[in-house]
Design goal:
Layout (H helix, E strand, L loop, with lengths): L8 E5 L4 H12 L3 E6 L9 H6 L5 H6 L5 E5 L5 H15 L4 E4 L5 E3 L1 H8 L7 E2 L9 H29 L2 E6 L14 H19 L4 E8 L25 H12 L10 E4 L8
Parallel strand pairs: 1-2, 1-4, 2-3, 4-7, 7-8, 8-9
Antiparallel strand pairs: 5-6
Helix pairs in contact: 1-8, 4-6, 6-7
């Protein structure tokens, strides 16, 4: 693979498993040094699908095997202070930040690794939110909004000053088709993801004069360990299959390389034709 990102440093949040791991490996293969930030660097261990995919003891080691520098930082990105501290650690270790992929998030009230730690080894499934627009428990509301929207904004706010100083940068935020099509269920995840799209447009306007591109991806039904096999939903997808981690990683590659130098403030849907965007 062409080393398009040689000499660049990329930050991937939520990078310890799933889509985040896929982005980290893709950018490493393109030559970028990477910093993986996650609330639990061992979170992939509780999902059998994720554990089988990993080829080393951690995602950072997998990236290092691609002949790049790679570090990992455990941090709670729902805390502004922790996020800024993590980004300063990246700068201290790797010297600069050229790319930020704000992947941390999830439509869950409690993640499987948290349940496992609290309730024993037999509990391995995420506790998904059952909130609706008319009725949502406060703890679920706050957890889902902060995990998705706040973590994204804090990451962008932490990396922006450094990208402005160097007059270059690529930021990729992560929304979802849930943020594009309204529904009565899975709230407040869809609200948070819709807000990320608006935030992306606003940030792109602010950072554009500094030669910084800010774009968003909105994955649909993608096969990861956390969400499991959803091939039964393929009848609702134009391409008649669920998406893969690689399907998303290729679009991220486009958005962080020179192929997208004249693209900013946009949201790219990665859903096989499922979502009816107008």
């Amino acid at each position: 693979m062409e080393q398009k990102l040689k000499g660049k440093v990329a930050v991937i949040t939520g990078g310890a498993r799933g889509l985040g791991r896929g982005y980290a490996l893709r950018l490493s293969a393109l030559g970028a040094d990477v910093a993986i930030i996650d609330r639990n660097l061992s979170s992939g261990d509780v999902y059998e699908f994720e554990a089988k995919l990993r080829t080393a003891e951690s995602v950072a080691v997998e990236c290092q095997q691609l002949n790049v520098r790679a570090i990992e930082i455990q941090a709670d990105l729902t805390s502004r202070e922790s996020t800024f501290t993590a980004i300063e650690e990246v700068l201290a270790e790797l010297g600069r930040i050229d790319i930020a992929v704000c992947n941390a998030g999830g439509g869950t009230a409690q993640f499987a690794d948290e349940i496992t730690q609290a309730d024993g080894a037999d509990a391995v499934a995420d506790l998904n939110t059952r909130g609706t627009p008319a009725s949502c428990d406060e703890d679920v509301l706050q957890r889902v909004i902060t995990t998705n929207l706040n973590s994204c904004m804090y990451t962008c706010m932490a990396v922006s000053p450094h990208m402005i100083k160097q007059s270059s940068g690529k930021i990729v935020t992560v929304s979802s088709t849930a943020g594009l099509e309204a529904g009565s269920g899975y709230h407040p995840y869809g609200v948070a993801k819709a807000a990320i799209i608006h935030y992306t447009r606003s940030l792109a306007q602010e950072l554009g004069p500094h030669n910084i591109n800010v774009n968003c991806i909105a994955p649909g039904i993608i096969r990861t360990g956390r969400l499991g096999d959803r091939q039964h939903l393929s009848k609702y997808i134009a391409l008649r299959r669920e998406g893969t981690i690689e399907d998303c990683a290729r679009v991220v590659e486009f958005l962080v390389t020179d192929l997208s130098d004249y693209v900013t403030g946009k949201t790219i849907t990665i859903d096989g034709g499922q979502c009816n965007q107008r």
